[in-house]
Amino acid sequence: MNPVLHSKRPKPWRMISLGVFALVGLASAAAMGLTLTDLVPRESGARTGKAFLGAALSPALEHTNWVPDDAPSFLSSILQATKRTLLIAFAALGLALAAALPLALLASERTWSGSSSPFSKILPRATRILITLLRSVHEYLLALLFLAALGLTPGAGVLALALPAAGVLAKVFAELIDEVEPGQFLALEGLGASRPSAVLFGTLPRALPDLAAYTFYRLECALRGSFILGFFGFPTLGLGLRLAFEEGDYPTVWTHLYALIILMVVFELSSAAMRRRLKA
Amino acid sequence: MKPEPRNQRIKELHSQRPRSFGLRLGGILMAGLVFYSLISPSLHLQTLFALERRSNLHRFLTQDLLPQSVQRDGSGLTGWLAWAWSVLQERALLASAQTLGLALVAIVIAAGTAALLATLAAREDFPQKPSRPTESRGDAASDAGPSLTPAGARKRAAPGPGEGGQHALIGRGLRLGFGLTRSLPEYLLAFLLVALLPHTAWPAVLALALHNGGILGRLFTETLENVPAGPSTSLRSIGAGAASTTLLARWPEAFTRALSLTFYRFETCVRDATVLGMVGIGSIGYLVVEARARQDVPEQFLLVLCGATIVLISDLLSRIVRRRLRVA
Predict the structure, then answer these.
(1) Which domains does chain B possess?
(2) CB–CB of B285 and A141 under 8 A?
């Protein structure tokens, strides 16, 4: 063993941090009374699980409950719920995007680098605080608050999804904008372009593929969020799933699950294809 | 007027710029859907500004948010603070601790499992370029890669003749698994698991751990594949096998970044843990639905503030640790 190299090896903080990490996990598990035996389903749980999994291959294709004669057919009501899930997600992401771009430009270091105006200290900091606050409240908590404030209207769900999404988008956008190499930006500034136009035409275009790729990813998140909003009464796919599950109507649950899975797979594949083209 | 040759050149370059029909179609489709959703009659978003909503909102802001006791004796902010402190002591502080506990257990399970599986999923062959591609990017952004399509499949040309078929198959399977567990919402997983498992916090922990394990698995795999090739090449050259190369050369190089990624996911874990209690597990979310059932809006509001505070604190902690790690 080379004694010089050995003395220069990294200090044992890795092992220590791993140990602390595992200990903290074990300690909190113990504090919360989590035991391994509780991981095994009891009798009733096992029965539910069996019934649930047993229905996986036979999803419901028509109403299993009594419905009025003039009610739309089961599959068309699933389609309608899917449509509403999509619409809420798209509306939320559209609003979030509209808010996130200006916020990101305000929070980016590039916009303010070397500026001596009094705003250059306060504005980016204030924007970053606003962004952090937007992200800090979970969308489902917001959804419940908005339900109380506005009543059950799709707009409440859209707002609940849009506000945190705007925060996350703005944070990541600002990071991505700051990572663009400053070549074109400096060139434009050297030619006498104003700061806003140097950022808009020298930096933003180069960040655009990354911004778009991240937006696609957030769209998937918005879609998941929109699905879950149904659990709180919004008329998306989640609503039908929850009601059916509580009735023990597992075939209907599976129809909703398959609708979600198809939606997610189609989205993942198309957004992966788009991202591949963007990066190329 | 004849165009000058310089303009000609610009036009030429303009016509040669990379274009993709699919991308344009996708972009237009996306923009169209956003526009349609904003004006669509099935969402009728304009009703948000209807008179009835406004009066609802007015009542919410002026009356609903204040607890009855405070309204009655008109004690204002001090009264609210006293009431808030009593609720905190009674149950909200405990629930906050439970929320943090959920996130901690989940992230430890997720990171442990992900580290094991990533070791199996990481490809053996060495990266061609002296790579550093994921280093400078924002951590959050590195979450954005494709997941159902195996990451890195495009980077490589045809697989080398020596590449073990079985190992590649395991890697592919694991990557697909990472993608699948990520694409299901963790709230849905928790909701389904509550019905199966005995009444403990496990459903929420498992749901969080599955979702984040998938994401961390993918990120760890990429990190392991992108470490500088030096140490593993030299270990290989003196006859070390695959297992010892990964353990002794790749992991030490990847460790700091893996830890940083874990802390980044921890922030998200805490955020998600605040709502997972809604499926019926002691934590902030549970108290929120309980307060909602009692139509206790002031308490709901206080709990939302509580949740935000936990998220902000863990954000701050994680940011400090990650900055340290970047320096180390």
Answers:
(1) 77-155+164-327 (1.10.3720.10)
(2) yes
